[in-house]
Amino acid sequence: MGKSRFILPNAFTSMNFLLGVFAICWTTGAFSSFFNVDSIRMGAYFIILSVLLDKLDGFAARLVNASSEFGAQFDSLADLIAFGLAPAFTVFFTYKTLCPDWFQANGVLLIVTFAIYVLCAAMRLAKYNACDSDTYHHHFSGLPSTFAGAINAILVVFLKSKGLFENTDSTMIFLPVFVMLVTGILMVSPLFLPKLQPRKNQLFNIGQAILIVITYICGFMFISEKVPFVLEFLLTLCSAYLIIGFTVGLVQRKRIIENAEKNRIEERR
């Protein structure tokens, strides 16, 4: 098979990279002259597609035994574009497009939050490659950039559909900025979040599998405004996972660190 086996996983990574780039193009209006669609929703949709396809490159690499250092670095670069830069641009240009007066008055706040989020995403991905990828097998250390990007993209489209950006006098207008700041900080936080993996409890595994399938269906239907409750379901599911997951991580923190240390010792032997 030779080097040709690396084509499949790198093709999926390339797809994620381009989805992130195109998400930025949609959000900033670069494609608006070619297509008569909601550019903000389309940009967010490309981020969601990247989320849904994110694990395919790793799965393909394991399937054809084509894991490599190049693939790992390329994947992190694609994640930085899709889940770091693209969501930040989505939030930034949503304000710029829908409420330009508020944008002008609060530009410094938006720029600072934008910078913090992107820097945290970059540090999160660098930290994962350097320290965490072989340390915590069942938990994430900090919020994965994938979830951070998804939450910000979904929230902006949901609030836009509810007319939030038309009412700049409401204190809720600051919510997307606040969520982007919090998700950025959570990416580099020392909190633990359980991974979505098979567990010993078969009933739990069945429920988890059903939710994942429903999530993928809702994710692909995200682009349509005619399908009801898609945004509400995705937001509720993401919020519940983070709240419950981080709580479990706090409760089990000592055991998680001890197990990671044991694994390191065993791997050195």
Give a verbal description of the structure.
The chain is mainly α and 269 residues long. It has a single domain, classed as Four Helix Bundle (Hemerythrin (Met), subunit A), CATH 1.20.120.1760. Helices cover 72% and strands 2% of the residues. A two-stranded antiparallel sheet has the order 1-2. The radius of gyration is 19 Å and the shape is globular. The two termini are 33 Å apart.
CATH architecture: Up-down Bundle
Number of helices: 11
What's the mean pLDDT score?
89
Oligomer: single chain
Strand content: under 5%
Report how far apart the termini are: 33 Å
Task: Determine and state the CATH class.
Answer: Mainly Alpha
Short description:
This protein is mainly α and 269 residues long.
What is the topology?
Blueprint: H1 7-27, H2 39-53, H3 56-63, H4 69-98, H5 100-105, H6 107-132, E1 139-141, H7 145-161, H8 175-187, E2 192-194, H9 202-220, H10 230-251, H11 253-268
Antiparallel strand pairs: 1-2
What attributes characterize this protein structure?
2 strands; 269 residues; Four Helix Bundle (Hemerythrin (Met), subunit A); single chain; two-stranded antiparallel sheet; 2% strand; mainly alpha
